[in-house]
Amino acid sequence: MATDDVGAENENPDAPKEDAKPDAPAEDKTVEIGKAGDAVAAEPTPKSAPKPAQDKLAKGAPQSPAQTVAKDRGALVPIIAAFVAGVLLVAAVTAVVVFYRQASNRGDELDAHEAATAAACNYGKLISTYDPQTIDEYLKKVDAASTGDWKDQFTKLGQDLKGVVVDAKATSSTYDMQCGFQSGDTENANVLVVIGQTTTNVNIAAANKPPSKVELVVVAGLKKVDDKWLVNKFDLPILKQMGN
């Protein structure tokens, strides 16, 4: 028997062959030979790493809610500052206007007080100065400077007063006049009038007596009519006696 035949006989066709290794994945097929001749699997090529989040922000990616709120607050700061400055300016202007109006009103009241006081003094001198020769003119002037109930009262008593002055040859003048504002506003006023009055008549003259001097204290009430202060109250003792 030939040698080749022996080898063929020894070979068992039914014997299982050595298990074949399964095919490795594509990424494992690449091998390199080490120094000892062993096959060493090469490491798979790493995939590209993801880019940092900063790159996304740099390309205009949406900001976080906290960043948006901070940005909005920063934008509102100048608006709020301007608003506050505007409010303060309006308050300052309002204060100036109010102060000006108060000062103006106060000035108007003071002017009215002075005018009313001067009118009361002029009236006190007018009504306390008369004589038989000028009694008619006297009555007209007093009537023109009077108003209201006092005007009506004086008109009724005027003729009686004229008769007394003419019959008694009475004369009157003033040697002193003091007036002081008591109360009121720009339309009405009460003024205290102190009249130093000198009087004489036929009886005094017949007795060779000097003219008598008296002081009359009257509260004059005044009302502003057509920018003019007129007297609506003036209680003279002589008129009260005549009225009774």
Strand content: 15-25%
Q: Tell me, what is the CATH class of one domain? A: Alpha Beta
Annotated CATH topology of one domain: Nuclear Transport Factor 2, Chain: A
N- and C-termini, Cα separation: 190 Å
Helix content: 40-55%
Morphology: elongated
How would you spell out the order of helices and strands?
A: HEEHHHHEEHEEH
The average pLDDT score comes to 73
CATH architectural label of one domain: Roll
> How does the helix and strand content classify structurally?
alpha+beta
Rg: 61 Å
Low-confidence stretches: 1-13, 15-22, 24-42
Number of strands: 6
State the helix count.
7
- Sketch the major β-sheet: 4 strands, antiparallel
In what order do the strands lie side by side in the largest sheet?
3-4-5-6
Can you put this structure into words, describing what you see?
There is one protein chain. The protein starts with a helix and ends with a helix. α4 runs antiparallel to α5. About 50% of the residues lie in helices and about 20% in strands. A hairpin with a 2-residue loop joins β5 and β6 (about 230-235). The chain has a domain at about 105-244: Nuclear Transport Factor 2, Chain: A. The chain has helices at about 5-10, 55-60, 65-125, 135-145, 150-170, 200-205, 235-244; strands at about 30-35, 40, 170-185, 190-200, 210-225, 230-235. It has 7 helices and 6 strands, in the order αββααααββαββα. The strands form 2 sheets. A 4-stranded antiparallel sheet has the order 3-4-5-6. It has a two-stranded antiparallel ribbon with strand order 1-2. It is elongated. It is of the alpha+beta class and about 240 residues long.
